Amino acid sequence: MGDLLGYARVSTIEQKAHLQTDALKTAGCIRVWTDKASGTLDHRPQLDRMLDHLRPGDTLVVWRLDRLGRNLRHLISTVTELSAREVGFRSLTEGIDTTTPAGRLVFHVFGALAEFEAALIRERTTAGLAAARARGRTGGRPRAMTPDKLAVARQLYDDGGHTLDAIAAIVEVSRSTLYRNLAS
């Protein structure tokens, strides 16, 4: 049996992590790492240090699931990586403990729900794009060089009385956009 190691996080420097750290110590954590950083950050220094410290048989303990993961997908990815390293995971508030069969089941249900949610989002996005295309709309950024601007630019270029910089300024596009469109 390895060690129980805790991780706490508060979102701002003004916030205190006492509630979390007290609960983690009461749960038996021999050491607690604390970050004062937004959960949306890819890398949190104390989390990275704690993950490096974990050894097979250890269990990572958090006060609540949202203290560890940026979102459900990130949380599941992190816990899956821990499992591959033979490290357990426990969330005190939600009562999840992947070192037990019931805890693993609950966590896998969470994973299945996250996968289902991602699939629904993909389907809705695809259906929305198809509906927009059927109505004649195209996605993406509007083209800087419209057919009218191109006609004016070609006329000015053919007349020879303006530099390319001046023509680009007149039709309000960059030089590279002007070059690309005049060449086609």
Structure write-up:
The structure is a single chain. Helix content is 52%, strand content 12%. The chain is an alpha/beta fold and 184 residues long. The chain has a five-stranded mixed β-sheet, with helices on both faces. α5 (147-159) packs antiparallel against α6 (164-171) and α6 packs across α7 (175-183). The protein is elongated and about 85 Å long.
Main beta sheet strand tally, sense and closure: 5 strands, mixed
Number of DSSP helical runs: 7
Proportion in β-strands? 5-15%
Mean model confidence by pLDDT = 88
Task: Assign a percent range to the helix content.
Answer: 40-55%
Query: Which value, in Å, is the CA radius of gyration?
Result: 28 Å
Main structural class: alpha/beta
Strand arrangement across the biggest beta sheet: 2-1-3-4-5
Can you tell me the residue ranges where pLDDT is under 50 for at least 5 consecutive residues? Answer: none
**Total beta-strand segments:** 5
List the secondary-structure elements in sequence, H or E: EHEHEHEEHHHH
Calculate the terminal CA-CA distance, rounded to whole Å.
70 Å
Question: How does the overall form come out from the CA principal axes?
Answer: elongated
